[in-house]
Amino acid sequence: MARRGPLPLYKGFLTGWGATTFGTGLVLPLTVAYLRETLGLPTSGVSLYFALFAMAGLAVNPLAGKVARAYGSGPAAVGATVLQAVGAAWLAAADSMAATVPAACLSGAGTGAYYAVQTPLLTKAFGNTALSRVLSGQHRISALTMAVGALLGGQAVERLGEGGYTLCLAVNGVSYLVHGAMLVRLLRAERQPAPSGSGSAERDQSLASSAEPAVVRGARGGRSVALSDPVFLRLLLVQIALVIFGIAQVDTVVPAILRNADLSVSAISVVIACNTVGVILFQGLALRIVERIGYVASLTAAILIWVAAMAALTAAVLVPGAGVRLALGALFGLVFAVGECLIAPSVQPLVTLTAPAGRLEGYAAATSLAHGLGALVSPLVLLPVVDGGGVWSYLALQLGGYGIALFALLSFRARSARRLACVPVGRETIP
Across 3-17, 170-184, 411-425, which has the greatest mean pLDDT? Predict the structure, then answer.
């Protein structure tokens, strides 16, 4: 395989992204304890905080798409990081349940707005052909920085007590501003003319950057057009199924399953750590596989790999012996990571291929909405099944969800063949 050429400002972008995911990692394991132990919120108050966070992200989704179409995806993304920073600072200064409400709304709105415009932002900045590479790099950096952040956040609270919570929340807020500053740097570089004699990747990027604003601003019908597109709706169904029955479960449903199997909290943390290590180790290889076999084939392989991972998780619940259960749980974490690594660089490039010219913002906003809905629905649906029906009911539901994802994916491939055939040669890898 040919060696990849350098991407201008790619390392700078990943630095900003790594800063914000490090901040997220700092507060991820601490937020619930902070709300309950420091602010004294009841369980209903904690649930309200996370519900408001999720709903704010969903509510701001159409507005983010409109702002991106009017002013460009870059300014919309920078504005989103400011909202995230203000929300984090507000939570750090909160002293009552009432004060957590605007903090949740601001943080959720900023997060929802950013992910609604991320795909057109990256496409404009780095070009369509490099999108998978950028997404793959993001996924690997996220796994590493969030794991390190989570470890340091726990140490900060253990050593500093209540001050540790405040420190981690403040660092999280600053991390959003670092990310925003790197995005501003990226936007300034886009406005500079490309040097003569640059390589084909840079020319593709320059063409995409110069053409995008005029096309986008002249387009009409944003997310509503995407949600009435029968081909794109099949891709949305694939994404929702992958989130509900896969991506959203690692931090919520899977720990509950393993806890019901009498694994200790430390053993569960080992399983989660194995999943993180798997992402870091396998993401580079997974990107090469995606580039070789295409997006749809990679998503198909990811679904089948997740079926194998479910077998390991089921065995971890049913077999006797804590050591064997831990080993099978760790195997699940590693195998599941392979599927995640194949999915990360595959879904969003298919969105860019499916979206008609000038309507990428609306289509990207719809995928962000679908991801948010899936993340909200997953624990609400699957946790009661785990607690009430046991592992066999959970496994049956999981297999049904993977079946839906596979059917929708194959249907998408069949229905999108004519549209994807119109993509200019050399713009993308073959789906």
Answer: 170-184
Nearest-angstrom CA–CA distance, 138 and 133: 9
Quote the pLDDT of residue 420. Answer: 64
Among all chains, which residue has been given the structure tokens 């291929």? 353
The letter for the amino acid at 199 is G
> Which CA distances in Å does 185 have to 14, 67, 349?
12, 20, 24
Q: Alpha-carbon distance 346 to 420, whole Å? A: 15
CA distance 234 to 350: 11
Check residue 26 and give its pLDDT: 87
Q: Is residue 57 a contact partner of residue 350, using CB atoms and an 8 Å limit?
A: no
Task: Give the max Cα distance, the chain.
Answer: 67
Residue 5 pLDDT:
61
Distance in angstroms (rounded) separating the CA atoms of residues 7 and 80: 24
Closest by alpha carbon to 399, among 418, 384, 385? 385
Q: How far apart, in Å, do the first and last CA atoms of the chain sit?
A: 18
Compute φ and ψ for 6, nearest 5 degrees.
-70, 150
Helix 295-318 / helix 253-260 crossing angle, nearest 10 deg: 20
From residue 223, alpha-carbon distances to 19, 240, 244 in Å are: 30, 16, 21
Cα distance between residue 326 and residue 24, in whole Å: 27
**296, 352 Cβ separation under 8 angstroms:** no
Residue type at position 336: F
Amino acid at 150: A
d(CA 73, CA 75): 6
Section 37-56 average pLDDT? 83
pLDDT tens digit sequence for 291-347: 899 999 999 999 999 999 999 999 998 888 888 999 999 999 999 999 999 998 999
pTM: 0.76
